[in-house]
User: Fold these one by one.
Assistant:
Number 1:
Amino acid sequence: MVTLLQDDQHSFGVGETRRVCVSGSNRQMGEQLGEACRPSIAEALALVHGEMEKIGPITHFRARAQAYVSAIEKVAPYLVEEIRGLARGAAVPFEDALLLQLRFEAVGFDGRGGDGCSSFAIKRADGHVFTGQNVDTVEEHCRLGTVVEMRPDYGPDMLFYAYYPGMIGYLGINSEGLSVFGNALLSDGWRVGFPRYLSCRLALEQKTAAKAEETIRGLERASTINLLFTDPSGDIRNLEQTVDEVETLTAEDGRLFHTNHYVCERFRGDERLLDILPDSTVRRAQGAARLEEIDVGEGDLFEQVKSVLKDHQNHPSSICRHRAETSRYDADQWMTVASLVADPAAGRVDVAFGPPCETDYQTFYLP
């Protein structure tokens, strides 16, 4: 069964509900997602192809995408089946449906089409965890952001945000109360391997933060990412990753804020993203300070953490990010295309499709 809850299947407008619900086998869920979002998947492909063509011909990327299939099949062959279903439902070539999952590996930061992001987790005095992030990238992705609900035949139900329809996993929660959020990191050594968007999907299929960490540690990663996991036990785990290694950071006093540079001493020599996103250190310091100000024993933490995500210290390259009128570095032309705040134990994610200082949050529940 597929349910498309929006006024229009593409070119979303302000105030529209952007939620797609799919269920069944992996092949069925892929087909349903592709069919329901066919027009907007065509828009997403035009956008992604445009980013790739700044680097090379799209035929090159379609051919290279095939090299990732065996890496995905080695770990999760059912996800390849889901992508094949997506291609069929959207009436696009399999290679294009695959490229929607490989945008980050294909474009990376060479095409200046990467992403930034600021993520957080905070634990209330009773152990209840709130988490989420701002999603920062090129402005064009703002109009296509989508919330996908998946109810697979096996495993937990999932509710996640995607940059565009056609992604089969990214940032969100599952019916076990697990959350998966994260942000870009950059070190050398990118290669053909298991792609980052699908690593988020694998994590979302787990029951606990510990199991999600175990899953990620077992991957032969294609690229680098920081992933932040929480679960209903109050466990908060932040995984900084190079392609070969993982370092786990834990919350201090029930609070954690992460941006786009390696924090652990072990990986600081691998750091490559600060040249592109020099504002990362300012955002992390400001976010950590704002979280520290929150009284975890009182008040509405949902609204308090939204206030943190609206912070404009170091504007426009702030936690709530805006395009700079005069560019000093490539990434100061990125903006916050979505802001996510989750209460995973309650099955709730609030999403602002755009900078949260000027865009209302919509509330989504995982039934």
Number 2:
Amino acid sequence: MNVAPAIAYYLYGFARAGAAPETGLGAGVDEGHAPPFIWTHGEIAAVLSLVSPEEFCGPKGEENLQNLDWIGPRACRHQAAIEQVMRQGPVLPARFGTLFSSLESVEKYLLANAPAIVRFLERTAGQEEWAVKGLLRRGDAEAWSRARLVQESEPAGASPGAAYLRDQSLQIKAKRELDFWLAETCGELIQELDSVASAACQRKILPHDAAKAGGDMVLNWAFLVPRPALADFCARIERANDKHNVHGLMFELSGPWPPYSFFPTLEIDAPTDET
């Protein structure tokens, strides 16, 4: 009969051996145990902490992982530890909730994936992930598009029927022209940013409250940006905002983030000996 372990090893991510800070990593994801610590194998350092496996696995774990009030503070502590490591050098961040039953299973995972991990750390050294979102104030944008078409169109006929038909035609055409302009404008910015970034990744457009976010999300990309190119990267977004904000389109930049969007393909995507 298999007995579930009393503790599990929670993985925050990997760094170069000797580069990850030994202290100052904040509280562990599970505050009932000691703070995160560094466990080194060869040229790779794993950032780990002890957790109670039942908090993440089984019926209680399933319930916790559906509870945003439970996930929120733990995800913040996970992120804080990763960001602290990132200040010292490149990091390969693990996904929230990655557990191992023993240090032997961590070692097994490393042996299977060490070349890919080392390549990723080498590739991302001196670089940071930055997120770029496009937010459209649709009402403003449609009004601008329609006003532009009104200036270019013939004057309305004298009859109310002719004016109504003209108005309906302009409204349909304005929406179509706006979609074309939006795709063209966002595409041009992506190409411009890609020219100074080392990698780019399109992310899912998420539903959200447009009133709180400042508009409908129409673009969501992540870029891996070399630190020397960051000023140029930011300046390109600023120029795009100066040009297009009056039309209802704004580009929002956030970062730096650990390179979650560029996670490499590993031979084993999850520990084989689950707790």
Number 3:
Amino acid sequence: MRRAFGGAALALGGPVALAAQASPAPARQEKPLIMLDPGHGGHDPGAIALDGYYEKYIALDAGLELRRMLEYTGRYRVAMTRSRDVFVPLDHRVADAMDHKADLFLSLHCDHLPENNLRGASIFTLSNNATDKLAAALAQDENGDDADSRQVASAPPQVADILASLETRATKISSHNLAQDLAASFNGVVPMLPNPTRAANFAVLRDPSTPAALLEMGCLTNKRDESRLRNTAEREKLLWRVTAAINNYFGHAAQRRMAG
């Protein structure tokens, strides 16, 4: 969690100043800011289901519902890279998270797999080396939808330095913790693909300072998953598990700060 530190020295002299030094007023701690990123939008439909339904609509509905759930807890501030059916370039989504100084970034998507019997959610974090061929192909597909992301991926020196900083231990560990919390929260409630936590070089996860994950909520190539994701009650069941995972993530983060 990003935190701002500051203070001013108190002038010594007299009991009032000493009392002020001994018992400073507690600083108001700002709620964590979560940046939600509904994938695709506008001219970019994302994955297309067998019956022609677009991923971009499910991602946006899920993002708006998840924002409501997170705000309902009273524990978070929430921002969105898009809140209507518009196209937002991938590098702009990354910039939004950086500009907002987000404490967490979650990109919402639906999968499109070569075999229509495969179904379930999967969670991705950033890595220069994909965990498997499927993860690499998915990242290439997501990045390839946006010309700007190709420019970011190939740009030298200053951008290369930023990409190198993505390997910072704290951000990688926190992103991994988020992915594990999501998988644990889904277990037994939300269908998941085998080995649901994976990694690849997703352009939308390239904010070097914000823990981030990309959630594939299900497979639009599978009729059961499509039906589940288009059903409001079923989708909300998944999103409440996402909310529980985020609560768990920040609860563990607070414990780690106290332990440190």
Number 4:
Amino acid sequence: MRTERDPLGTLEVPDDALYGVQTLRAVQNFPISGLRPIAPFVTGQVWIKRGAALTHKETGRLDAKIADAIVQAADEVIAGKHREHFVVDPYQAGAGTSHNMNVNEVLANRANELLGGTRGTYTPVHPNDHVNMAQSTNDTIPTAIRLACLSQLNLFTGAFHGLRDALLARAAEFDDIVKAGRTHLQDAMPIRLGQEFAAYAGSIDRGVRLVVEAADYLRDLGIGGSAVGTGVTVEKEYPALMNTHLREMTGLDLRIGTDRIQLMQSMGDVAGFSAAIRVLAIDLSKIASDLRLMVMGPRTGIDEITLPAVQPGSSIMPGKINPSIPEMVNQVCFQVMGCDTTVSIAAEHGQLELNVMMPVIGHNVLLSMQILTNAVTVLTERCVNGIKANREMCEYWVERSAALATALMPQIGYAAAAEISKRSVKEGILIRDLVKRDGVIPSDEVDRVLDLRKMTEIGVPGGRRAGGPAGGQGGPA
């Protein structure tokens, strides 16, 4: 152990720890979840420290030897080293001071080692005076959240684009398969299986575009705002130089925030981004639920599709195979919806010049991105790519749909068509057979009017008779 001192006194810190006394206090104060900070959040904060060292070296405010050591230490962390020393629970004191000091201490201790010093001495590199120069938790944490989210955006959208493309491939493969449509979980007009999957792809595509649009607001950086957004202790050149260095380090399209006070007061941009992710998760969960419905069976359900078998489905029922991947996706989406609720409440709970709830905001939005990226990748690779259509079952159910009577409306009117539908169900006879048996329309028109494929496209089944349907003008659809 080594002894370190801060304004509250001394503590014994493990000799092998790159963190220091302030980090240790946070570990002792907040043994809440057992979780560590999500990796991109650490990287985002380290990018800021690296950029600040380069900026202050450029302006001459920081000794070049110290700046270079901080940069080298930061490069090691960015490359994946020393990650085990970032130990503060996501549920910590407000604003993220503990996380900020954890990063400051790790970089200071490692920089001192690089300069021939020892851990815990903080000379010649001090965590506050040098690593945190001209910075505050209050401007670095919201900037780190923005950088972290943007750094994961391409991975996130790439996973969803892969799912979209897989759904489109299934749409093309299934385009000639007509099946029963269902609304309210009751019989509805026919639809092609391919149309359903194309619509799923469209929902994913629209949702991703909304996320990307929301992410654009994250590109405005409030770094340089310091304690309350006014830039106290910050050189005038600092915001522009920081933006340049951060752009070069991250490869991200970043902008200098024009109102750093607003960017510190409000976490609305992050909340809007989280909300867009939630909307995408809502659509994704609906798709996963639909897959579970369509695969229902194989003997006592609708059994319209087959999903790849990925694991046994029961510890007691031999041969049972469950829709395990869609079930996992549902659960992930539920978690994301909960994360967004947390982000929304926390974003509202800022007061005056600062939102102190930033740690839980950052954790939840990054967790949402992480688990959705992974879940969607698994859904694509282990489920959607291997979906097969059960053509026979689709044909079986669509011919038995009571909603096929709708196609008769232009010929015989709403009331008569409704009666046909009820009789079909009551007598257990297909509508097609009932119409032929009872001569509801001329026999040579039956198959033309009840053309299932044509019912899946815009148009009037069989064409509308001159003068309208017999027995009235029809009724509501």
